[in-house]
Amino acid sequence: MNVIDEIKKRSVYVDKAIGELLPITEPVELYKASRYLPDAGGKRLRPATVILAAEAVGSNVNAVLSAAVAIELVHNFTLVHDDIMDKDGIRRGVPSVHVEWSEACAILAGDTLYSKSFEILSRIDCDPVRVVKSIELLSGTCAEICEGQWMDINFENRDDVGEHEYLEMVKKKTSVLYAASAKIGALLGGASDEVADALYEFGCLVGIGFQIYDDVLDLVTPEQILGKVRGSDLMEGKKTVIAIHAMKHGVKLDIFGSGSATISQIDEAVKILEDSGSIGYANDLAMSYIQRGKAKLDILDDSEAKDVLLAIADYMIERAY
Amino acid sequence: MNVIDEIKKRSVYVDKAIGELLPITEPVELYKASRYLPDAGGKRLRPATVILAAEAVGSNVNAVLSAAVAIELVHNFTLVHDDIMDKDGIRRGVPSVHVEWSEACAILAGDTLYSKSFEILSRIDCDPVRVVKSIELLSGTCAEICEGQWMDINFENRDDVGEHEYLEMVKKKTSVLYAASAKIGALLGGASDEVADALYEFGCLVGIGFQIYDDVLDLVTPEQILGKVRGSDLMEGKKTVIAIHAMKHGVKLDIFGSGSATISQIDEAVKILEDSGSIGYANDLAMSYIQRGKAKLDILDDSEAKDVLLAIADYMIERAY
Predict the structure, then answer these.
(1) What is this structure's pTM?
(2) ipTM confidence
(3) Burial class of residue A62 (count of CB atoms within 10 Å of its CB; 0-12, 13-18, 19+)
(4) Residues of B engaging A, defined by a Cβ cutoff of 8 Å
(5) Nearest residue of A to residue B85 by CA position?
């Protein structure tokens, strides 16, 4: 099975539905600014997971398509606002919304995406008890994402960030929305609370594993594949699992937080982190999260969708970038 | 009946419930930033209206208190983000959130308020069909508020804004949230769709009347009562109903959009706008909106809450500031 093809099969529906559920109406420029990032691409991993979770519990894409769109728009809302806060000028290979328009417009485009997400989700044709549960989960998840972003911003000014805190931040900033995608797909697909909760746990564990492995890739992937400067996390002084492990074991890296470094300095730092076991430790930790996540799907009957969800989990730590 | 006292009676519940439903938890500083503006005061007109609408259809404060809090938090969310966009440094007599913390923190505090609003509303103990309807209305209203703010920002750079467009902007930026407050109180209080829709129309018309009268007050109220520079709308070149009427009738004002003016220049401009009938026109228009709004409440049986809602409508155009 080709994971990318399986995601693509579902994302075709999502792309079409975004155009229908978030049409460009008056004021045209506001809706253009709101649609700009969703239209710029993205893997659609979260909406595909909503659909796969629904399929895995015996439902189908049509029953949950609005929810898949709502979650993709929430994801885009967080990116638009994060880029303003983090002063990131490029996203998905194009200028960020606040660069293309202005900060004021980007705040408003993000707020519009957010508002429309909840409106779209509230209009889904499904048992209202399950709709309310989904909205409660999605709004609570959004609050957690804010908490995670707040923690991330504040970690920059601290030297005493521990592994537990880092994982808590990663969980909130990255993995809870993936977890909510899986659970909402299951909930709206008619699953029991037990199955829906298992899908949440699956998404949460796999999402954390993804982020830890992302930090590994930042160090071990050749630049031409990575598409950005290798070792950027080290130069920025980012408190990843690797950096925290190294610090805990007394490893000192001259380039940590230095802002820049030569290729040979980065090679040397990576060698030190390999020798200290820090990279291996992070790699093993990522694997263990993925394995624990996959085990949560034992509760599901066998299906093609279940196989795709398991393959997505493996893909998280098999991808080269 | 003293309108302010009647609002106050209900806002006591709201103030207490905000503390319970939006507690200051980890990360403490994020929740402090989120609670800062709600705790800084405000008339609580919207949540009081949620409660009054519920009472007017035979329900009570306890049944709709979470919804009242959710709407007050949405209102505060819009203020926090608007102040960043409009670069307003003071709100409710204290420094704005982005001044007290930073723009990044204010974006995040606003997003947190927004997320919590929907989480709180989704957790209300009420028929789930009515909860979903309320969430659909509130999220759609939030999208309209974004549209209104976008229009307001863009009007600054245009000279051809007509009365119809101005009223459309005012409706979206200001009155739809007041209308949603009244309708959600009715919906969750068990009203029929017909009654709930009438309460929406009441809120919408009265809200527009309020804003038109606000523009009149900016010109005719002595500064010591107004609490800000009189005629600031004129100096900023704001396209109010008054300014649009004057322009349409060939009235030229030297200080319009000039950024500053002496007291005698403002007095002179007000005299010109009185002579051209522009102020009188706006005053009459505000009154007619209030009267049309009040008439929508004919659908309700007599009650104390109905009387308070009617008195609030009158208060909109009787207040001195």
Answers:
(1) 0.96
(2) 0.95
(3) exposed
(4) 26-27, 29-30, 81, 84-85, 103-105, 107-108, 111-112, 114-119, 122-123, 128-129, 131-132, 135-136, 138-140, 142-143, 145-147, 149-151, 153-154
(5) A104
